[in-house]
């Protein structure tokens, strides 16, 4: 039996129950208002797809392929992206909530996080070279041995990044954001 293949299809969670989604390859497809929460999407392949208004909280993504995927207005709590297929992994997030998710040891070069809530997200040993965190809440996000060269944090807030254990060469920060780089020193910084 061959692998299921779907191309240029639209899946609307208000019209089609998501539990009818067949394991296979999805290319140039859009998923609107689908509730994938707690579903097993392991070994699915998604290429050039858009997920909009979807709930993907706690989905299993073991060996799942996300190649050129855009997530917009999605709830994505507790996803372990480190279990995804690393080959051609490329994603973008726009107005998403990714709290308690993990990107441990994941290559996410030039990834855009636009107006996202990334509280308690694990970026340990993640390659975020050239990534942009535009208007993102990074409360409690974990950065350890993370590659942040040329990353843009100018409009991000509530982050704590230790430059001694992360590579931050040419990363961009705003003046108020520098506090997040000095937090480990427990110093009192006040504006005059």
Describe the fold and architecture.
The protein is mainly beta. The chain folds into two domains: 94 residues, 3 Solenoid (Pectate Lyase C-like), CATH 2.160.20; 82 residues, E3 ubiquitin-protein ligase SopA (Pectate Lyase C-like). The protein is built from one helix and ten strands. Strands 1, 2, 3, 4, 5, 6, 7, 8, 9 and 10 form a ten-stranded parallel beta sheet that branches. The longest helix is centred in the C-terminal third of the chain and has 4 residues. The radius of gyration is 18 Å and the shape is elongated. The N and C termini lie far apart (71 Å). The model has no long low-confidence stretch (mean pLDDT 93).
List keywords for this structure.
single chain, Pectate Lyase C-like, ten-stranded parallel β-sheet, elongated
Overall number of structural domains? 2
Q: Name the CATH superfamily assignment of the largest domain.
A: E3 ubiquitin-protein ligase SopA
How would you state the average pLDDT, rounded? 93
Shape: elongated
Main sheet attributes: strand count, strand direction, barrel closure: 10 strands, parallel
Q: Which structural class fits the helix and strand makeup?
A: mainly beta
Per DSSP E runs of 2 or more residues, the count of β-strands stands at 10
**Cα-to-Cα separation, first versus last residue:** 71 Å
Estimated share of beta-strand residues: 15-25%
């Amino acid at each position: 039996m061959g692998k299921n293949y779907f191309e240029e299809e639209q899946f609307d969670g208000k019209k089609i129950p998501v539990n009818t989604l067949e394991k296979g390859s999805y290319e140039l497809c859009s998923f609107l208002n689908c509730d994938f929460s707690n579903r097993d999407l392991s070994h699915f392949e998604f290429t050039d797809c858009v997920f909009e208004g979807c709930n993907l909280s706690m989905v299993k993504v073991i060996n799942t392929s996300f190649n050129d995927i855009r997530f917009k207005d999605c709830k994505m709590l507790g996803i372990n992206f480190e279990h995804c297929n690393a080959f051609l992994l490329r994603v973008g997030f726009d107005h998403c909530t990714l709290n308690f998710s993990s990107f441990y040891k994941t290559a996410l070069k030039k990834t855009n996080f636009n107006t996202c809530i990334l509280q308690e997200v694990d970026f340990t040993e993640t390659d975020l070279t050239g990534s942009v965190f535009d208007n993102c809440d990074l409360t409690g996000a974990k950065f350890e041995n993370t590659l942040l060269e040329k990353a843009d944090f100018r409009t991000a807030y509530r982050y704590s990044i230790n430059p001694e254990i992360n590579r931050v060469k040419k990363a961009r920060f705003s003046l108020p954001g520098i506090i997040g780089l000095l937090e480990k020193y427990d110093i009192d910084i006040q504006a005059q």
